[in-house]
Amino acid sequence: MGDRSPPTSSSAFAVWRRLVGARIRADWQYRMSFFLFLVGQALIASLDIAVIAAIFANVDSLGGWSGYEVALLFGLGGVSFGMADLLISQVETASKHIKAGTFDLFLLRPVPTLLQLSASEFALRRLGRIIQPLIVLAVALFTAPVHWSVETTLLIPTTIVAGTVIFGAIWVITSSIVFWTVDSQEVASAFTYGGNVATEYPLDVLGIWMRRIATFVVPLAFVAYLPAARMLNRHDPLGLPSAAAWAAPVVAVTAWLAAHAVWGFAIRHYRSTGS
Amino acid sequence: MPTTTHHISDNIIDVAGLEKSFNVTRKAGRLRRRREVVNAVAGIDMQVERGAMVGYIGPNGAGKSTTIKMLTGILVPTAGWVRVDGLEPNRQRTELARRIGVVFGQRSQLWWDLPLRDSFDLLRHVFRVDAARHAANLARYAEGLELGPLLDVPVRQLSLGQRMRGELTAALLHDPSILLLDEPTIGLDVVSKEAVRQFLVDINRELGTTVLLTTHDLSDVERLCQRLLIIDHGRVIEDGMVADITERYGAERTLVVDLVEPGPPLDVAGATVTNVDGPRQWLRFRRHEVTASELLVRVSKLADVRDLTIEEPDIESIVREIYTR
Fold first, then answer.
1. Which is more confidently placed, B8 or A26?
2. In the predicted model, what is the mean pLDDT of chain A?
3. B150 CB near a chain A CB, below 8 Å?
4. How many CB atoms lie within 10 A of CB A54?
């Protein structure tokens, strides 16, 4: 093997880029469906805003948060979710590949399986899910009473990256279940899509146990709620120090390492199908 | 840690006591489910010499594919020892992936909507083959498999035979030391089959690539393999040179006689009639018990013979005999 260097993360990224490029070129042959889907995604995403607008047409605040403050939550959570949806949600298709027997092929290539799934099922049209929360986020940053400083400014991109990784980790962990029971994708969706909805509302509206779960078990509180609370100078009802907002990257890395371990464990239990 | 030691054994595949069992839940009654353990592979030993071409056959569900999946690291064995090119497949799967080429007859590793050439180029990056070697390999295989005019055709527009030639090229571009083929000729027409077979013979001879193939088509084995492993119920039931197996089990031959008049099955000592079609009758006999000429004398006493042929056993009937033994 002397003539081949060990894989590096940069070469893995280069492979990912090429595989994604191939996928986009293939999808481009069906570009009408691409544009229709993009429009559809934007419309569906707008429904979420309509729901929140409807709530605030009837009440002034939700768990003590004003409409513009909730919009900040919505924007942060939505952008992170959209990014994870674009880059990592493809692990959901593992069950499809297991059933079709094509997951075997991923295991026969010297590239991580998560990377191959991400690239081979990449769908550029999912960008439609990011555009709209991005607009909401921009509006919220202008309208909500954000305490601007260098620190809160840095908190925005940090939170989005960390949130993307946290959602991604949830996606990977819940998708791992399919290695034991192939038809368990619905359960996984409850956590991922459900998790997205949970980040769009202040945790104050939830009961104490749900808040604890959202902080310490499925760390959704770090995706938007805790960072937004710090930016708005609010106190967390769980009594966490406001600096907990900056724990998001640590939580994200931990969640990702856990997801990676679960995925590796799941693959060792892969049963493959058919001949 | 990657191992860099060269192993002493010349066996590129070294398997001992290999087992794989699956837990299966079956319905038992209306609501109850019963857990069962199915031993898909129940203790297989096999050694394959570097550079050999070996046929790996058995009936459906015998454990062929499960074995292949353990050899490639797709499945983790329940028990046993496996080394492929000195590596432990499930622990060193990605490293092993660079040294093996795999073709599953019913699963494509090509990019469906893209030209064949794009698939090859993507695989070059996936396997990190340098550009010059890739170009040389592609030129060689494109010529050997007559792929030249097909390189710019999207894979979905290729015929099955054309696609299979693409699959073989895809499996070989990274210069694997071993090629594992699962039903490589399934569904192919006669011409494509022959092209694939001839190519495999050439690759094996010129590059020394070891080939292990599972197949339902025993003419693949006759044409390609010196050695044959037969498995059934997850165990190796026969392992030997194709010629030896034919010699050992091929003791039964068939005398086909065309009689002048159609009649009932002939009752001849030393032979049994296996088929009757009008005046033609098939008489199976064991060549150690009776010679063909002796048998013909006996038949002639019972009926007038117009013509005759003797059918040598083909590998297919031998294998059928081994299975049903």
1. A26
2. 85
3. no
4. 9
Per-residue pLDDT of B85-99, as tens digits, reads 999 998 999 999 999
A19:B93 CB<8 A: no
Q: How far apart are CA A168 and CA A160, in angstroms?
A: 12
For chain A, the domains span 9-273
Which residue in A1, A104, A110 is closest to B74 by CB distance? A104
Span B304-323, pLDDT tens digits:
899 998 887 766 677 777 77
Angle, CA A114 vertex, CA A109 and CA A115 arms, to 5°: 70
Beta bridge partners of B100: B178
Instruction: State which residue of chain A sits closest to B23, comparing Cα positions.
Output: A271
Whether the predicted pLDDT of B275 surpasses 50: yes
The residue assigned the tokens 């929360």 is A133
Query: Distance from first CA to last CA of chain B, Å, rounded?
Result: 47
Strand partners, B229: B56, B239
The angle at the Cα of B313, spanning B307 to B318, to the nearest 5 degrees, equals 150
Could you tell me how far CA A275 lies from the centroid of its own chain? Answer: 35
The predicted complex's ipTM stands at 0.82
| Pairs of CB atoms within 8 A across A/B | 83
Residues of B in contact with A269 (CB under 8 A): 76
Mean pLDDT estimate for chain B: 87
The answer to whether the Cβ–Cβ distance between A108 and B126 falls below 8 Å is no
Kindly list the residues from chain B whose CB atom is less than 8 angstroms away from the CB atom of residue A102.
107
- CA of A147, closest CA in chain B: separation in Å? 48
Closest CA to B211 of B138, B102, B127, B318: B102
E-state strands within chain B: 11-27, 33-49, 53-57, 79-84, 100-104, 178-182, 210-214, 227-232, 235-241, 252-259, 271-277, 280-286, 305-311
Question: Do B234 and B41 form a contact (C-beta atoms < 8 A)?
Answer: yes
**Cβ contacts of B60 on chain A, cutoff 8 Å:** 275
Decide: helix, strand or coil at residue B123.
helix
- Whole-model pTM: value is 0.82
Residue-wise pLDDT for B69-78, tens only, equals 999 999 999 9
pLDDT per position as a tens digit, A2-32: 444 445 556 888 999 999 999 998 888 888 8
DSSP state of B87: B
Res B1: pLDDT: 45
Cβ neighbours of B122 in A, within 8 Å: 18-19, 22
- Which chain A residues are within 8 Å of B114, Cβ to Cβ? 22, 25-26
β-strands B252-259, B305-311 pairing: antiparallel
Which residue in chain A is spatially nearest to B100 when comparing CA positions? A108
Beta-carbon separation of A19 and B113 below 8 A: no
What confidence tier does A146 reach under pLDDT thresholds 50, 70, 90? confident
Flag whether pLDDT at B103 surpasses 90: yes
Give the model's confidence band at B8: pLDDT under 50 very low, under 70 low, under 90 confident, else very high.
Answer: low
Instruction: Domains for chain B: give ranges and CATH numbers.
Output: 49-72+91-246 (3.40.50.300), 251-324 (3.30.70)
Mutation target to probe the B interface, by most B beta carbons within 10 A, among A5, A29, A180, A271 is A271
